[in-house]
Amino acid sequence: MRTPDTLLANIPWSQLTYIRLHCEAPADQFLNALRQCVQAQYIDIERVKPSSLMPSVPVTLPYLTYLRVVCFTDDIITLLDDFNLPSLRTLKLVTRPLTTSRDVKGLQALAARSSCTLETLHVDDWFLPEEELIAYLSLPCLQSLRKLDIASINISERTLSLLIFPSTTSDVGGILPCLEQLHIGYITNDGLLSDVVGSRRRLTGVQNSPTSLKRVKVIFKRRRGDEPLLHDLDILHFNEFAEQGLSISWSWI
């Protein structure tokens, strides 16, 4: 963590398939190192700092299926502008950017540039504006998702209504039709989330129904202080879903 310059310059990158780097360094240093990882299948990098010296040619990693990036100082999507990842299936982004807007279209551009099929998306962005969260969920490149893990303090009725299948707020019908796992936090509304889950439980003989959810994990948000918000409707239905065989859990934070 204290000697990233020496570290990054002396690793046999071209031989590695599994890489975890938790050292503070500018994005251009990470990218110059990762450019050499032609055999990489799994990359997890943390403590990425912004850099004005970004490469002009995208970093192409032909075998990479898993990418996790933690960046607390800038919009993380701008870093993805420098990747071409044709085999990418899992993308995990953890960020607390200082800016109020996000480059939502950058994720769609990555998928189009790479011709990849995303199956898992994890976005941990507490202050993600709901308008941009909705824009994320509506992206064409995410309609193949089997697992969605989203954490934001700005999830309200609009987002949950969009996730009901078919959507009650979208003109294009149901989004994320292939979803099998949903991890979501931080919820304050009572009742709508159970509607989301219920709408994604496949019914035999019903045409155009989505893939049935197999696993759900929910984090409810507490009131100010330690008093938990009541979620009587949601929990009532969650218990029913559990009796029907759904793996479902919930907690408060």
From TrEMBL:
InterPro entries assigned: LRR_dom_sf
Superkingdom as given in the UniProt entry: Eukaryota
Name of the protein in question: F-box domain-containing protein
